[in-house]
Amino acid sequence: MYCIDKEKISIYGSKKDVNQAINILNFTDFFNDEPIDRIRIQNRIDEKKIKAIILYDGNTVWSFNTVIRDFKRYIKGGQMTNYLYKFLSLACGSIAHYNKAGWSSTYPPSEMRRFFQRNEFGQRVYDHIPLWKTDAKKIVKEIERILNPLAERF
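The structure assignment produced for this chain is given below.
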């Protein structure tokens, strides 16, 4: 595991993946405005398919495309990926349930709507996420759209 820190941004991964991320991220584009910076980083992760893990002030910036792709696969009865599991357990107001299999058995695909309406802290997942985590809020908004096309509103 290789790591580099640039002000509030930390990048983890193989040396190759970290160097790729450094070359793609133009650090002069960031203004120490976390909500705006997180969306900019998320967009670059998705546009350039950055493989390294990027943290802003110690918190993961999530790939919109990866979480949504993995979520759709899970809903269709597929396996839960490690990336989706980490997103759900770290960003959405859920405990880890020991491991991915434990989480999946507690919240199978048929229970996803219920979980997003009321997480383990009794809150709608979207409302649980702090305002500054704009990348996670963007993802959850899309998940709600996927889960709730015709049913009652969240």
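Interim note for the steering committee: Residues 47 and 65 are 9 Å apart (CA to CA). Residues 34-48 form the longest helix (15 residues).
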